[in-house]
């Protein structure tokens, strides 16, 4: 997706985003000093992710700057990100209330006075 004439790129991102650049069989992970540029070679991969949910929609972003030979900026591309938190929780004591800190989550006991998650899985084939 880089414009014609690009030989290098740099990345800026907000605090809630983790960035990894992999090129020439090497990966650089973690905080990258401001002004760092990478060669744009075939097979270069830019990965970004978020490890926590956003406070609001589009509150994180990644900006990629493209550079020509000699370091002249050519263009920029940006992505706004919203991290969504997902949690699969259970009614561990089967009382109709899902509690985050129920001590019965770590074990399972069979029977009417039992505790632990009951998982019902639909294994039929809905479509070919």
Name the helicity range: under 10%
End-to-end Cα distance: 36 Å
* Low-confidence parts: none
Tell me about the largest β-sheet. Answer: 4 strands, antiparallel
Mean pLDDT: 83
Provide the β-strand percentage band.
25-35%
Shape: elongated
Query: How does the helix and strand content classify structurally?
Result: mainly beta
What does this structure look like?
The protein is mainly β and 128 residues long. The protein has a domain of 76 residues: Sandwich (Immunoglobulin-like). Helix content is 0%, strand content 33%. It has no helices and 7 strands. The strands form 2 sheets. A 4-stranded antiparallel sheet has the order 4-1-6-7, with no helix packed on it. A hairpin with a 5-residue loop joins strand 6 and strand 7. The two termini are 36 Å apart.
């Amino acid at each position: 997706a880089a414009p014609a004439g690009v030989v290098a790129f740099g990345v800026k991102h907000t605090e809630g985003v983790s960035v990894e650049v992999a090129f020439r069989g090497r990966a650089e992970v973690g905080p990258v000093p401001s002004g760092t540029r990478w060669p744009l070679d075939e097979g270069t991969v830019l990965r970004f992710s978020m490890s926590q949910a956003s406070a609001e929609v589009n509150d994180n972003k990644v900006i990629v700057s493209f550079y020509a030979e000699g370091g002249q900026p050519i263009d920029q591309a940006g992505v706004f990100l919203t991290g969504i938190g997902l949690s699969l929780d259970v009614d561990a004591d089967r009382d109709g209330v899902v509690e985050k800190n129920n001590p019965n989550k770590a074990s399972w006991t069979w029977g009417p006075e039992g505790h632990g998650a009951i998982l019902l899985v639909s294994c039929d084939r809905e479509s070919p």
